Amino acid sequence: MMVAKARAAPPRSVKWRRTRRSTPNKWSRGHGAARAGRSARSSSRFAPTKAAGSKGNASTSVEDGGVNVPLAMELWKRANAVCFDVDCTVCKDDSLDALAGFLGKKNEVEAWTTRAMDGSVGLERSLEERMKILSPSFDEVERYLATGGRAEQRLNPGIVDLVGALRDRGVAVYLISGGFREMALPVAKALGLPPENVYANRMHFSVCDETGLPRNFAGFDRTEPTCRQGGKPEVIRDLRLRHPYETIVMVGDGITDLEAAEVEGGADAFIGYGGTVARPEVMKGADWFVSDFFSLRAELRRYKVAFLGSGAWACAAAKLACENASGDDLFDPEVSMWVHEEVHEGRPLHETINETHENPKYAKGCFMGENLEASSSAEDAVREANLVVFCVPHEFAHGLCVQLQGRVRPDAIAISLTKGMRIRPEGPQLISEMIRKKLGVADAGVLMGANIAGEIAQGQLSEGTIGYRILENAKVFERLFQTPSFIVTLVQDVEGAEMSGTLKNVVAIAAGLSDGLGYGSNTKAAILRQGLSEMRSFAKKMFPTVRDETFLESCGVADLVASCYGGRNRRVAEAFAREGGQRAMEEVAEDLLGGQKLQGALTAGEVHSVLRQNGWEDEFPLFDTVYRIAVTREIPVDAVTGFMSSRQSGR
Ligand SMILES: NC(=O)C1=CN([C@@H]2O[C@H](COP(=O)(O)OP(=O)(O)OC[C@H]3O[C@@H](n4cnc5c(N)ncnc54)[C@H](O)[C@@H]3O)[C@@H](O)[C@H]2O)C=CC1
Ligand SMILES: O=C(CO)COP(=O)(O)O
């Protein structure tokens, strides 16, 4: 939650800015946010980066940076309203300076503009002095606007696109100018903004008695807040009263813009713009200082995706994500992937992946896309990510989460593709829950479903189910994974989806045993039926909120069918049964899977520990049987159909 603004309206002197308070909650967000203090986090993205340099009439070389870039970026991405200053921000020049140039009074006026913008005199005084010097007639203003002052030629590079992008995603855009409406309205028009979104001063003109037409300058409207110091925050406070905006960001080049984010009810973040003039006081005080609008555009709503894991499913899912990320403005096109380091054919695996964009050991033939960047460091892979896709075999999940504690952006949202659970003395924990808690991410859902990796890598039609808590986040992941051949459905049942995906691996072992024994379709159907029933009961005992309907989705019955006919658990169990259960299932898996990991046998052991702890073995005869055949090997392989006799005897 946001903390209240500590500072009252700033005094006229510029000195207050040097003693800006430092707020401890670096990552807070929401309505009425106090601007945060300097960030303790540092990363290549957040550290000041060299910008292309100042543009327009700027003379200083500009560095991007700011006192709290991560928070400002976050607020920028979630802003409901953005207020732009006009002169030297949206526009390459100051309209009064330009009008002065047109009237041959440039030097006198410019000196007063600079004094207002760097804060050495109050805005009202500066405006008064400049207008005294200019004193334009109505005709002169009109002629200026029709010639040198044409809005289209005054706009800074990138602003039209930026405003368009903001409006496309439903962000309200306002112009708040310390200049005059006469100059600001054509600018608003050029940006496609309605006049009511413009806050600026108004000129008065005397009226010719004979023609009734406006003639000479007769002062300006002193009731407009924009004509005085503290006027911009006043406008923003007023916007908040009239609209339910949770987050408002101010963008500008001057002290009066910075001030808009310094007071209670003002903007939640201030982005300093140095593309025209880079003012040292503004650079010093801005939450985020940029030298052009392109960096704001690039950051807008961009999700940076990182995959944790590089096995068969991780690679097939990354292929979907890379395809979408490269063509959808919502995402940063570069997708990073953590690769558990190993040497494959004499080379570090991540190097080979970076060269070929394919994982030759775990997902041969699955070209993920040129935009995939593999790394052997999990920390590096997630550093900039705000979308984390977790897909490691479940036995490695806890270790990886511990390793990454405090290394993931807290505003990140995660999705787990891992099928499995964690057993603790106090009971089972969903992997998604562990991710949320250990990694400290804002939300974690799951993507489950009938997703045999090789088939998805080939582009065969498949379905997936996203189990979510927060719909908005699920929609982002839907957009990341859905393709014409991978159809995603959303269910508000993380526990149901994740438990289904986890438990079906145990049933798939039973199906493989049945295949290995040479039984036909009827026996396998009985295993699937019993398995589905036990999956549902177990899931509900663990998590009472689990919904029956979830088992009818791809993550339920469809995954069960796919895995019991086509999966690795089935295949390994079949081979195990053919050998008469002579070797441990892990050994058989090692022979057959070339390093890929079997989840079903481990899960059978984990599920059994819960059954034993609660005395539930009899209620779950299939799960119990799989454990005794595949894990402890205490009963023969052909006991797999024993659950049928237990039904007969009413067990
Ligand atoms: N393969 C599939 O068709 C599907 C798999 N899943 C699930 O996805 C999860 C990941 O499976 P896959 O991507 O298929 O992997 P995989 O089984 O194909 O490959 C094993 C992965 O584990 C990594 N690894 C080995 N030692 C490790 C260690 N000490 N620490 C961390 N990682 C290590 C390997 O580098 C490799 O990336 C599993 O929970 C699985 O059930 C879900 C749907 C489909
Ligand atoms: O989860 C899977 C399919 O949805 C893959 O299962 P296997 O690990 O048994 O291949």
TrEMBL record:
<dbReference type="InterPro" id="IPR023214">
    <property type="entry name" value="HAD_sf"/>
</dbReference>
<feature type="domain" description="Glycerol-3-phosphate dehydrogenase NAD-dependent C-terminal">
    <location>
        <begin position="493"/>
        <end position="639"/>
    </location>
</feature>
<feature type="domain" description="Glycerol-3-phosphate dehydrogenase NAD-dependent N-terminal">
    <location>
        <begin position="304"/>
        <end position="468"/>
    </location>
</feature>
<dbReference type="Pfam" id="PF07479">
    <property type="entry name" value="NAD_Gly3P_dh_C"/>
</dbReference>
<dbReference type="GO" id="GO:0051287">
    <property type="term" value="F:NAD binding"/>
</dbReference>
<dbReference type="GO" id="GO:0046168">
    <property type="term" value="P:glycerol-3-phosphate catabolic process"/>
</dbReference>
<feature type="region of interest" description="Disordered">
    <location>
        <begin position="1"/>
        <end position="63"/>
    </location>
</feature>
<keyword id="KW-0520">NAD</keyword>
<dbReference type="Pfam" id="PF01210">
    <property type="entry name" value="NAD_Gly3P_dh_N"/>
</dbReference>
<comment type="similarity">
    <text>Belongs to the NAD-dependent glycerol-3-phosphate dehydrogenase family.</text>
</comment>
<feature type="compositionally biased region" description="Low complexity">
    <location>
        <begin position="30"/>
        <end position="47"/>
    </location>
</feature>
<dbReference type="GO" id="GO:0005829">
    <property type="term" value="C:cytosol"/>
</dbReference>
<feature type="compositionally biased region" description="Basic residues">
    <location>
        <begin position="14"/>
        <end position="23"/>
    </location>
</feature>
<dbReference type="GO" id="GO:0042803">
    <property type="term" value="F:protein homodimerization activity"/>
</dbReference>
<dbReference type="InterPro" id="IPR036412">
    <property type="entry name" value="HAD-like_sf"/>
</dbReference>
<dbReference type="GO" id="GO:0141152">
    <property type="term" value="F:glycerol-3-phosphate dehydrogenase (NAD+) activity"/>
</dbReference>
<dbReference type="InterPro" id="IPR006109">
    <property type="entry name" value="G3P_DH_NAD-dep_C"/>
</dbReference>
<dbReference type="Pfam" id="PF12710">
    <property type="entry name" value="HAD"/>
</dbReference>
<protein>
    <recommendedName>
        <fullName>Glycerol-3-phosphate dehydrogenase [NAD(+)]</fullName>
        <ecNumber>1.1.1.8</ecNumber>
    </recommendedName>
</protein>
<keyword id="KW-0560">Oxidoreductase</keyword>
<dbReference type="InterPro" id="IPR006168">
    <property type="entry name" value="G3P_DH_NAD-dep"/>
</dbReference>
<dbReference type="InterPro" id="IPR036291">
    <property type="entry name" value="NAD(P)-bd_dom_sf"/>
</dbReference>
<dbReference type="InterPro" id="IPR011128">
    <property type="entry name" value="G3P_DH_NAD-dep_N"/>
</dbReference>
<dbReference type="GO" id="GO:0005975">
    <property type="term" value="P:carbohydrate metabolic process"/>
</dbReference>
<dbReference type="InterPro" id="IPR013328">
    <property type="entry name" value="6PGD_dom2"/>
</dbReference>
<dbReference type="InterPro" id="IPR008927">
    <property type="entry name" value="6-PGluconate_DH-like_C_sf"/>
</dbReference>
<dbReference type="InterPro" id="IPR017751">
    <property type="entry name" value="G3P_DH_NAD-dep_euk"/>
</dbReference>
